[in-house]
């Protein structure tokens, strides 16, 4: 997975899978046995990303702000893979959305119970915010991604704050 992240980050989606195999220190046949195409490889990378987010959410002190920060970091590191998943809309990636919704719902409930986020915010709003941020970061020039992520998080905080 690490090799795939690195190769796609350096060379984009057009990078040959043989480069991923070489970086991982495995034969191309081994790579294709586990990942028959780019989508399968991208889904496996995102499975790891979501597992990390699930582990983050399992900590009792984690907030939606932490989730947005972690998603931004993951997106910045995997922009080419975001483009692939968004452009292909493959059913092999559907479970990723379900898992992400569970993480978002858990953290939203926690933040609403503590008064950090308003009850007007729904899980669908959080998912839309995450999707918007991910797509925007995947398209932003590399030098501007960190600042753009900070601006997006500030907009979401303002929108999700409890209303009086």
Report on this model:
This protein has 164 residues and is mostly helical. It has helices at 2-11, 17-24, 28-34, 38-58, 64-77, 79-88, 94-114, 123-139, 145-160. Helix 1 crosses helix 2 (17-24). The termini are far apart. The relative contact order is 0.12.
Key words describing this protein structure:
elongated, 76% helix, 164 residues
Write the layout of secondary structure elements.
Blueprint: H1 2-11, H2 17-24, H3 28-34, H4 38-58, H5 64-77, H6 79-88, H7 94-114, H8 123-139, H9 145-160
Helix pairs in contact: 1-2, 4-5, 4-6, 4-7, 5-8, 5-9, 6-8, 7-8, 8-9
Total strands? 0
* Bulk shape: elongated
Order of helices and strands: HHHHHHHHH
| Distance between the ends | 46 Å
* Main beta-sheet strand count, sense and barrel state: none
In which range does the helix fraction lie? over 70%
Summarize, please:
76% of the residues lie in helices and 0% in strands. α4 (38-58) runs parallel beside α7.
